[in-house]
Design brief:
The protein has 65 residues and is an all-alpha fold. The chain contains three helices and no strands.
């Protein structure tokens, strides 16, 4: 009963849910890096969306003319 007497804060509960749903590690940066090294993959949430395309190279446009 003593284990369940405390109520978790909304912030901590949201972090736990996000970690579980996304399959991410919940801990400090050092812990995340250690687990990532063991698994050989990223264990933290990345930025959403596709990577941006590189800016066009002006030399390539000049060659087409």
């Amino acid at each position: 009963r003593g284990l369940f007497g405390d109520v978790l804060g909304e912030d901590l509960l949201a972090r736990i849910r996000e970690s579980v749903n996304g399959g991410f590690v919940l801990g400090n940066d050092r812990f995340e890096r250690e687990i990532a090294a063991m698994l050989g993959r990223r264990t933290w949430k990345g930025s959403p969306g596709r990577p941006k395309k590189p800016a066009p190279d002006n030399r390539q446009a000049e060659m087409a003319v």
